[in-house]
Amino acid sequence: MTSLAELATIVDEAASTAIAIPQLTESLPGLSVEDAYAIQALSLARRRARGERRAGYKMGLTSRAKMQQVGVSEIIWGRLTDAMRLIEGGDLVRSRYVHPRVEPEIAYIIGKPLEGDVSAAEALAAVEAVAPAMEIIDSRYRDFKFALPDVVADNSSSSGFYVGSWAKASTDVANLGIVMEVDGRPVQIGSSAAILGNPIRSLVSAARLVARAGERLEPGDIVMAGGATAAYPLTPGQYVRTTFQSLGAVAFSVVA
User: Fold this and answer.
1) What is the dihedral of CA 108, 254, 22, 41, to 10 degrees?
2) Whole domain around residue 84: which residue ranges?
3) Nearest C-alpha neighbor of 133 from the set 161, 175, 95, 170
4) What is the CATH number of the domain that holds 57?
5) Integer Cα distance of 110 and 133 in angstroms
6) Average pLDDT score over residue span 176-184
7) H-type helices in 58-119, by residue range?
8) Which of 86, 128, 196, 241 could be disulfide-bonded to 201 (CB atoms 3.0-4.6 Å)?
9) 72, 96 in Cβ contact below 8 A?
10) How far apart are CA 209 and CA 212, in angstroms?
11) Structurally, how many domains does the chain consist of?
12) Would the pTM count as exceeding 0.90?
């Protein structure tokens, strides 16, 4: 019987070496979502032991487009570290990933502790600032295919993130037009309203879900609210730029 710690080692090494692995549920069909979150926590503990520091949380499967794309229907979450934060306007090294994709998101930075069952007003009151962002997702499983426990164990596919300029917490991000371009050509067009109808609902969910794991959103944490559109695959030579109505833009280049 493979232990959760052993499974965490497998997932962590797949991420650090950018080598695809079989789905965990292929050999362990009874793997539960609860076990998967335990594997995720153990995997991230290995990263922290190597010197990575906590940076916040990511929410996943918060739009119908994302749910349809990966074939699941439950909101999930993962953890962010400082090593996952990429320099806005800089390069993304494709060889560090298995099959990376990018999606536009809204990012929040937390100004005061937030946990448990909170209202949208309480969540907003805990926000220090908001920003345009993009997340790099990269399932470490073969063919980008997985069941819900697989993706949760794999840190909910979170691999990196870009954050643009921070705006006031009072900035209305409920329904902003979003255009993602690759080499000047629009490849995804959507709205921030695709994130649970309003991105603040994702923050409400984050406070509730991480509390189940005995954690809370702390001052300084960045919370990625989830993809507003389907994710787009990345290959070397691309220049990716996403513009958010009245909020700004985020960009990066893909290199080999």
Assistant:
1) -30
2) 4-255
3) 161
4) 3.90.850.10
5) 15
6) 98
7) 64-70
8) 196
9) no
10) 5
11) 1
12) yes
